[in-house]
TrEMBL record:
Name recorded for this polypeptide: MBL fold metallo-hydrolase
Organism: Haloferax volcanii (Halobacterium volcanii)
Keywords carried by this UniProt record: Hydrolase, Metal-binding, Zinc
Cofactors required: Zn(2+)
Domain of life: Archaea
Gene3D superfamilies in the record: Ribonuclease Z/Hydroxyacylglutathione hydrolase-like
InterPro entries referenced in this protein's UniProt entry, alphabetically: MBL_Glyoxalase_II (IPR051453), Metallo-B-lactamas (IPR001279), RibonucZ/Hydroxyglut_hydro (IPR036866)
Cross-referenced PANTHER family: HYDROXYACYLGLUTATHIONE HYDROLASE GLOC
Annotated Metallo-beta-lactamase domain residues: 13-170
Alphabetized GO MF terms: hydrolase activity; metal ion binding
């Protein structure tokens, strides 16, 4: 089961997804609110935290979550203090009941990862793409529009026709025709 724990939060934060099953994990930790009691309303333990990237709005609660749940964080850049263990491009990790492939998708930030499960069709897209054809900002440090377009194309290639759910770093998730939103983002990133 996938739950967005930030639905009622009124702060500048990323979405935070709790995924339970064989392993219980968070995808991103959000920022600017106390995440620990929010997680504890649903579970007493976490097996891992997976970071899509290390912008402050996605990792602000990392230290509190690590301490409260004695859990390690996984991400692309172990040079960042928020990342305990590295996930390489193409590496597979267990999130909930599914195995997800980590897809390195720079452009919004150099350490950006998406996580895609071919078995379930679920993708955690971080800030690469959003609902209705939105895409990640490239005006921040490490932002690069050309790299972002290449990363969106790469994600489209990886998911193929298997995408059933798109969980994004901000805004609503997409469970109805998510491939269309991904295609819209690919076109919009080329023209805006």
């Amino acid at each position: 089961m996938i739950r967005n724990l930030t639905g009622d939060i009124r702060a500048f934060t990323s979405n935070v997804f709790l995924v339970d099953g064989e392993t219980t994990a968070l995808v991103d930790t959000g920022a600017n609110f106390d995440m620990v009691p929010t997680v504890r309303e649903v579970t007493d333990s976490l097996d891992a935290v997976y970071l899509t990237h290390t912008h402050p709005d996605h990792i602000g609660n990392v230290d509190a979550v690590r301490e409260a749940f004695d859990v390690q964080t996984w991400g692309y850049d172990t040079g960042n203090l928020a990342v305990d263990r590295r996930i390489d491009d193409g590496e597979r990790v267990q999130i909930g009941d599914d195995v997800f492939e980590a897809v390195h998708t720079p452009g919004h930030k150099d350490d950006h990862l998406c996580f895609f499960s071919r078995g379930s069709g679920v993708c955690f897209a971080g800030d690469l793409v959003f609902a209705n054809g939105g895409f990640g900002r490239t005006d921040l440090p490490e932002g690069d529009r050309g790299a972002l377009v290449e990363s969106i194309d790469r994600l489209r290639e990886v998911v193929g026709g298997d995408l059933t759910e798109l969980h994004t770093g901000h805004g609503p998730s997409v469970a109805t025709r998510p491939s269309e939103d991904l295609e819209l983002a690919a076109r919009a990133a080329r023209t805006r």
